[in-house]
Specification:
The complex is a heterodimer. By secondary structure, chain A is of the alpha+beta class. Chain A has eight helices and eleven strands. Chain B has a four-stranded antiparallel sheet. Classes of the chains: A alpha+beta, B alpha+beta.
Chain lengths: 252, 142
Amino acid sequence: MFKEIKKFLLNQPDEGVDKVPEETRREFLKIGLIITGVFAGGSIFSVVSKVAEGLATPEELHKSYPYKPHYSMVFKMDKCIDCERCVEACRATNNVPEYGWRTKILEIYDEKALDQKRIFMPILCNHCNNPPCVRACPTRATIKDPQTGIVKMVSYKCIGCKTCMVACPYNARYFNEEKRAIDKCDFCWETRLSKGEKLTACAAACPAGVRIFGDLSNPASEVYQIVHQLGKPVWTLKPETGAKPNVFYTMG
Amino acid sequence: MKKIKVNKGLLFFLFLFLFLLVGRVYVYDLNQGIVISESEEAGGPEIIYGKPVKGVLFSHKFHVKELGLPCESCHSGIFEMAALSSQEKKDFNMQALYQGKYCGACHDGKTAFASNTKCASCHIGVKGMMPYLKKLSQSQDK
């Protein structure tokens, strides 16, 4: 019997150790991004779009993640002025309590910086193509919507174990005491998008045009045009986690 | 056990009164804007506008004391003498600045950096307000 097992194991197709780095590399390039540097204030890597160099076409990217519409957000980071209208709009629209958050603004302040000493960075759930939180959930209370790619909560299934909070690389989840479930950004799916609105509450409230929300699968949308260009750097947060976020950052 | 009721409004006014007594902060509401009186040589108060967006800083200390601009350069038609009076006007927004009104009179890219650049230098935001107030009070104590 052991001989048969040995035979079975030996007959397994060889993955080949030497092939793995190339595979992962190709996988990485498929999303059209390459690491170029380290951003100040944590393990946030800067990533530049390489789509136009022919490493991966937008069509290839959308073949691997065929969401329609493929909801996505781009932040023009240097335009953010921390007026927090987005945060207020989000709280009002989605009933986010004082202690929780679905979106917030981080501040980078450097006294010794030349010229401008301050820059703000808005963050929310990255609605990853490969979401670690969905994999971590033991009750499938958090799901990746097969049509839109939005990472949603099914509140009644949530047992409040908070495993997803630990799994999320972006700290985008909080425990809602009233719902007795984890709550997170759903790109306003429940409150706005499913009712026919085109924008999330935060994107609609932003006075500075920081939050560009749209369909990454539609070549006419601004999101598509920003992500698939080379002129200005576009990056995602923590690409090393392999979560492949759908929230991108760029400068005005 | 008796619970002591604290009137929040009364408490607010008490604090406001205390601030008025100290004489540093005239207005203390993030939505309405903040005015912090500085010493005579600073030339005027530190102003943090609250409308139409929160947390926009104008520093007399920087513009008058450090840059040495005379009062008339702004207070002769561009801005009224009373602090925060311009934020009550309807056209006090970035669009007006691009047309050379208010801050845009100098911040046009020639005299000073253009209004549509370096956003967060003036827009210190909700997060920038409290540390700024703290820093000011520390520098005053010295």
